[in-house]
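User: Could you check the structure of this?
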Amino acid sequence: MTFIAAPARLSTADSQFEAQFKARLHWSADTDAAIEQRVADILADVQQRGDAAVLEYTARFDGLTAPDMQALELTQSELKAAFDAIPAKQRDALQAAAKRVRSYHEAQKKSCGESWSYRDEDGTLLGQKVTPLDRVGIYVPGGKAAYPSSVLMNAIPAHVAGVGEIIMVVPTPKGEKNLLVLAAAYVAGVTRAFTIGGAQAVAALAYGTATIPAVHKITGPGNAYVAAAKRRVFGTVGIDMIAGPSEILVLADGSTPPDWVAMDLFSQAEHDELAQSILLCPDAAYLDLVQASIDRLLPEMPRAEIIAKSLTGRGALILTRNMEEACEISNRIAPEHLEVSSREHQRWEPLLKHAGAIFLGAYTSESLGDYCAGPNHVLPTSGTARFSSPLGVYDFQKRSSLIEVSEAGAQVLGVIAAELAYGEGLQAHARAAEMRLK
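Assistant: Sure, the predicted structure tokens are below.
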């Protein structure tokens, strides 16, 4: 079967560019009403019936029947056995990736995750106390594909942050367990793991059951049902984000081999038909070369049909006036993954403000960041990089303000607080401050 990938060819010099550009970027985050209602019913049922409901939905949706929840829990010895059972090359790769991811997040913790305090001139202590969450849940997809990298990227920063318990849920349709996922859980330090998925797993983590303890935050990707469930339980627990389709934006000056760029565009397009791959370049001849590479390389891809639909439906090769304009457009898009495939990537990086992760230079393929470079691959999508950040140690910590007012400090602050409190009509606030005055 022959597949044709025809990304839109746009030019910023075209009078219709703005309309064409907006149409290509458009993606509706509206959820299906039927999915929303089904998820609401599942959440309410699990909240009411606990383990019994989770067992029922696991049998119905995953084809996995178990007598009780204990039968769906993976023991530490099973995780260790999975690690021992995978090929040595996979063990080595897991451990090497985990080491890099852990090192990066340890550095991140030192830069932003430590408590601090100081005393002002009157002896009052002010500061911030940073403490880890007690228990978190990580959702790992396990339906159409298995993602051991997601285990590392969610569990390791939680572990580095000092989270007491990390509860993993992963669906295993018909009981088929992926050894690499279980091995990753062992390497990453997952505390407990359950072979459940879908909205029922999110509900169990959020509300708790007789077997699964309620967590304080849920992270990790999932399908539309998982996303809808996370949205609904937010407030009862924290969540990382509601992720949209995966995205890559490549800024190229024409110096990178076109096959490399074509494959980088494929790397996101192969996720699903709604994934978006865009190339911005001021060289029209180079765009032609990349299209030729796409045409030649596509038949080699096992997921050629998905790639073709993604590139044709949402992909674009955009001719810009110059690299400065390409950077401006990139900031408007605020992509999940941003590659600067240029000889002068250090020149363009300061112009780039909004992206989940920025990959600098022709040798820095986005796929390295997905697996083993070190920074987290859980990134904001759909333009949310304008105001949100990659998953990190800080997502598994909370901050408490520290205030210790000295007697001398109370004489100064009390007068200020009382004046403002009277202005707000809150007499008790004012009196409480005044009682400390000499």
